[in-house]
Amino acid sequence: xxxxxxxxxxxxxxxxxxxxxxxxxxxxxxxxxxxxxxxxxxxxxxxxxxxxxxxxxxxxxxxxxxxxxxxxxxxxxxxxxxxxxxxxxxxxxxxxxxxxxxxx
Length: 104
Hints:
- The chain has no helices and eleven strands.
- By secondary structure, the chain is mainly beta.
- The chain starts with 6 loop residues before the first strand and ends in a 6-residue tail after the last strand.
């Protein structure tokens, strides 16, 4: 889903089933005192080259993922993954292994 921001997917990515990539939130949330929106998307979602996204992964707004990364099944990625060639897993997702590569 992308409204105010866009989603860019790099070259040679492998994307499984049940993936949700959200560039913005569906509903707007405001501070009741200032009327300022508190859940605004600040940057586009950018997925680098040669990324493997396993089944049932959710990628949230303001996220970029470095080249060569593996996103484990069921992960919820809500922060940028800036280190290339790493494995990310969990809810919320975190780096669990570095210096990895994957093949089809």
